[in-house]
């Protein structure tokens, strides 16, 4: 079902017409036109009691007439609409939903805790009211379902390959979560404005072990970068010395220099220089 505009009439102008009808009915009663006066007075009271409706800012009124959807009034103000109709209020304000902390398995099978906040608003009142049962609960359930699905597609962390991870690519994961949520919630006439992860951690039963794994992976990754940088620095130093002609190095001296430079650069502690006053041989 698609939203459409309901028939409405400015209530202030309508009130003037109703007052005029009321005065006319009183005049008919005074002139002893009892039936006509009472009929006009009844119509006046019926319209006055059953057709006036008030719409607050950022709200809408869904009009149904004996089970038939007549349309939606979005404009704030006082209106006259279909008499004897049922008018249900629905909010158009921006709202957010904070999911509970969910325990799911990432793509590597590690149990993790994850939560997200979803910012949304209703853009199609007819779908929100008639196509789903309690659209607020529908948003909550679909948000948790989409969060579980997205969390199970990526590892918690990734130090080895260049793929996405939940911790290292929060923006990309949030974008995918928002896109999947929009696809799921379109049937309810809801627009997803933003989706963000608010909590991400390993589950308590493996948190200690995974912390050690994270630390080990971080150390290995850092060591790889240090070694790569050290090799480049040593190559640059030897090439510069040979290019300037400051010293002539044979293979044995090159090996000794490479060993000393690598130890000085890669070592965890500050290197202690040893001054050699004699010959290498």
From TrEMBL:
List keywords of the entry alphabetically: Membrane, Transmembrane, Transmembrane helix
Pfam families recorded for this chain? Band_7
Task: Tell me where on the tree of life, at the top rank, the source sits.
Answer: Bacteria
Q: Which InterPro entries does the record match to this protein?
A: Band_7 (IPR001107), Band_7/SPFH_dom_sf (IPR036013)
Q: Which residues form the Band domain?
A: 50-214
Would the keyword Plastid be found if you checked this record's keyword annotation? Answer: no
Transmembrane portions of the chain: 12-30, 36-55
Descriptive protein name: SPFH domain-containing protein
Q: Which organism is it from?
A: Paenibacillus residui
Taxonomic lineage of this organism? Bacteria, Bacillati, Bacillota, Bacilli, Bacillales
């Amino acid at each position: 079902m698609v939203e459409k505009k309901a028939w409405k009439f400015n209530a202030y102008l309508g009130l003037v017409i109703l007052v005029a009808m009321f005065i006319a009915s009183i005049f008919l009663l005074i002139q002893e036109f009892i039936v006509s006066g009472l009929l006009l007075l009844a119509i006046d009271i019926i319209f006055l009691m059953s057709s006036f409706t008030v719409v607050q800012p950022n709200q809408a009124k869904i009009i149904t007439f004996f089970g038939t959807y007549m349309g939606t009034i979005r404009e704030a103000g006082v209106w006259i609409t279909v008499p004897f109709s049922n008018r249900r209020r629905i909010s158009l304000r921006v709202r957010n939903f904070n999911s509970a902390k969910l325990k799911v398995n990432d793509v590597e099978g590690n149990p993790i805790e994850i939560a997200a906040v979803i910012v949304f608003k209703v853009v199609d009142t007819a779908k929100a009211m008639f196509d789903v049962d309690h659209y607020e609960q529908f948003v909550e359930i679909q948000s948790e379902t989409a969060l579980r699905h997205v969390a199970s597609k990526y590892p918690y962390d990734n130090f080895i390959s260049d793929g996405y991870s939940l911790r290292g690519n929060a923006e990309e994961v949030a974008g995918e979560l928002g896109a999947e949520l929009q696809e799921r919630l379109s049937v309810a006439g809801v627009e997803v404005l933003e989706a963000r992860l608010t909590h991400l951690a390993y589950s308590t039963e493996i948190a200690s072990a995974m912390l050690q794994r994270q630390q080990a992976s971080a150390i290995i990754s850092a060591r790889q970068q240090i070694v790569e940088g050290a090799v480049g620095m040593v190559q640059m130093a030897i090439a510069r010395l040979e290019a300037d002609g400051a010293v002539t190095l044979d293979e044995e001296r090159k090996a000794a220099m490479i060993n000393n430079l690598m130890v000085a650069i890669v070592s965890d502690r500050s290197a202690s220089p040893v001054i050699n006053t004699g010959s290498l041989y």
